[in-house]
Amino acid sequence: MTRAARFLAWLALAGPILAGPVLHAAPTGGGFSAGDLYMNALAMPGTPAGGLVRLDPYGGPPQLVLPWLSSNVGDNGASAFCYDPGRDRILVFGNLDGQLGALWAVDAAGNHVKVPTTVGAVRSLAPATDGKVYAALAIFSSNPSGVLGWIDPAGAYHPLLDANGFLYSPFAGIVQVAAAAVAYDPPTHTLLYAVQHAGGECVGTAGITKGALYQISLSADGTRAIGQSCTIFDIDGGYPFGTQGGVPISFSRTSEGAYLLVLRGNGPNGSLDEVAPRMKIVTANLFGITTYASNGPYSNAGWCTAGTWSSLRHDAVIFDAAGNELRAFGLGQIGAGTVLDAGLIGGVNAMERAGLIEIAPLVGTDGQIAGTPAQVSLATGGTQTLSIDFGAAYAGRKFAVLGSASGFNPGLTLQGHPIPLNLDSYTLLTLQNPNSLLLMNSFGTLSPAGTAQTIFGLPPGLPPALAGLVLHHAALAANPPFAIIGVSNAAPVKLVP
To answer: What digits encode the pLDDT tens for the residues 296-344?
Structure first.
């Protein structure tokens, strides 16, 4: 019996006490487990060329899902790698089945299908809510594919155009793009685009030797760039042989709705690059960049070559290629962080590239929900506060919070709206019995700011066999009596011993 099935069985007994009668529905879901980390490892002990690896964000033995035919430890394309929640698949470039550098759609069991995309030199991938997957490309001269584009559901690549229908570039001059990262932000319908050594294009002379961060406004259909803003970043601290601002590796969305930008340095031990703010927070709604954490000093600390946000840990997790280990960092940390999976992933090359992602649901375009803390104990019980924010435009509207023990994919549909929760007995319990002891203040009225708080409360003494189960909650906004007008993302909570 799975952990989800055990939880639903417990609900069948405890539900009448906590909230009322529980109706039964068969749990559904895709093959991935929410909160798991996946690494595109270009080298790994026991494999000829690394592969796609599943990792527990709390540590433990990695699971090789799909071995690569061959790899290149210096390949900057290792971070061209994403989870596509709309189709419950991982997209990753790799060498498989005699085909080198192809784009593959991979499920949780390692089954894979080639995506018929012919564009090359992709450095970053970012799924959107309408089925597009945006791509950032390396450019060493003029390129008919542009610096940014998107892959459609059939696998065809399309360059991003400007407002006049020409090939879009954020740069006034010709800029060689060796490394870049891109993210799509649904609430603002914009792209976040970080580029190494493009600061001069952003702010002129003051930006030379620095990196550039762009926020690009999109047309309604997402195929054209209709405006942009720009700022600069610099993690090298003036080190003359550094990375010209820092090498962007990846964006990932945090639990609070901002974005973690992980960068790689290049300075030797003892240089200003040894202790550098290689983890940044980028906000899309107010467009700004601040320091999240700094790893180091330790040997070759600059070579963190992959990173992502972990919603189950509420931490940033980076891959220390030189140490061949994962390290987790909280906000404001400086130093070594919390070491995970030491020696179990990666190879012996200190400059080894990699990619690291989290399995997470689609971001809500209407509102946001974030849960704190990230886990609740089965033995002692506890609570998670779910903070809901639909914005002032939803002031005074009704809200409801629903849950699922069976994941977020493929989700369910209510009143024509896709909800990122799989239907099961817990969903029905939260739908039919609002404001229960298990989910307090799950139905009510949004504040003048369009916000609310719901409390998930777990009683003590639950079966230890439930440890590891991840529940999800999502919020709905509605006009009275309850006509749905908005849906949030799904927020996870992990049950631990």
So the answer is: 777 777 778 899 999 888 899 999 887 888 899 998 898 889 988 766 7
CA 163/CA 492 separation, integer angstroms: 39
Residue 402 tokens, joined = 């629903």
Helix axes 425-432, 3-18, angle to 10 degrees: 20
Which spans in 178-232 are helix H? Answer: 199-203
Give the phi and the psi of residue 165 in degrees, each rounded to 5. Answer: 90, 10
Assigned token pair, 45: 């002990």
Question: Are residues 444 and 399 in contact, defined by beta-carbon separation less than 8 angstroms?
Answer: yes
Per-residue HEC secondary structure of 138-171 comes to CECCCCCCCCEEEECCCCCEEECEECCCCECCCC
Return the beta strands (E) in 235-381 as ranges. Answer: 247-253, 259-264, 276-283, 288-295, 304-310, 315-320, 325-329, 334-335, 338-340, 354-358, 368-372, 375-377
Query: At 149, which amino acid appears?
Result: G
What is the reported pTM? 0.84
pLDDT digits (tens, 9 = 90+) for 250-288: 999 987 789 999 988 755 555 555 667 889 999 987 788
pLDDT digits (tens, 9 = 90+) for 423-435: 888 998 898 889 9
Strand partners, 370: 387
Instruction: List the domains of the chain with CATH numbers.
Output: 3-30+363-496 (2.20.130.20), 37-358 (2.120.10.30)
Q: Which of 472, 473, 476, 471 has its CA nearest to residue 487? A: 476
Q: Tokens for 110, please give them.
A: 């390692």
In order, the DSSP letters of 85-126 are TTTTEEEEEEEETTEEEEEEEE-TT--EEEE------EEEEE
If one counts every other C-beta atom within 10 angstroms of the C-beta of residue 349, the result is: 16
